[in-house]
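Below is a filled-in request sheet from our internal design queue. Each sheet records the structural input a requester submitted and the sequence that came back. We keep these sheets so that new team members can see what a complete request looks like end to end.

REQUESTER: design group, bay 2
PRIORITY: normal
MODE: inverse folding
CHAIN LENGTH: 170
BACKBONE (tokenized):
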């Protein structure tokens, strides 16, 4: 087994600075409802969460790309979003994080993957998923490939597959 020393790890992370790395895969919007629980519902034995706050974060491949920014790399994020409010928000969050959203291709009729977590008293109570796992259309795959080809000097590619349809055996 190969062990990575602390010095070697630091060297590898330092080498990421300035590298252009494509992150291709399933992007998602992480939505959180934060609140507190003080009672149980009279309709069913479930906690009632009084919502105090709502937040949105980049998830899936978009989270990986954001982490690469933190390591000093310049990521190219390539993925698929729906033509919906969540897709627009994901693109806006990506731009705010310093990501170029031009590699995010819109597919009409496809919902943007959203993972909604309800947190009560700092404990996740439930997660709600809005998504499709259908393979994306060929034209969308072609647009993703065009985005990749528009960056001929990539140093590497990270594939993030959450089985949402962009990366397939094809």
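RETURNED SEQUENCE:
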């Amino acid at each position: 087994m190969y062990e990575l020393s602390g010095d070697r790890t630091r060297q590898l992370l330092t080498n990421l600075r300035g590298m252009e790395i494509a992150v291709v895969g399933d992007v998602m919007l992480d939505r959180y409802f934060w609140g507190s629980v003080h009672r149980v519902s009279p309709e069913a034995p479930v906690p009632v969460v009084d919502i105090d706050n709502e937040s949105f974060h980049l998830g899936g491949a978009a989270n990986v790309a954001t982490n690469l920014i933190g390591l000093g790399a310049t990521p190219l994020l390539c993925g698929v979003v729906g033509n919906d409010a969540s897709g627009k928000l994901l693109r806006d969050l990506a731009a705010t994080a310093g990501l170029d959203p031009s590699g995010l291709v819109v597919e009409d009729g496809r919902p943007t993957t959203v993972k909604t977590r309800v947190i009560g008293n700092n404990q996740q109570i439930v997660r709600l998923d809005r998504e499709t796992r259908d393979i994306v259309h060929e034209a969308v795959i072609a647009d993703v490939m065009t985005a990749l080809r528009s960056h001929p000097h990539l140093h590497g590619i990270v594939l993030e597959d959450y089985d949402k349809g962009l990366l397939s055996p094809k």
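SHEET NOTES:
- The mean pLDDT is 96.
- The radius of gyration is 19 Å.
FILED BY: M.R.
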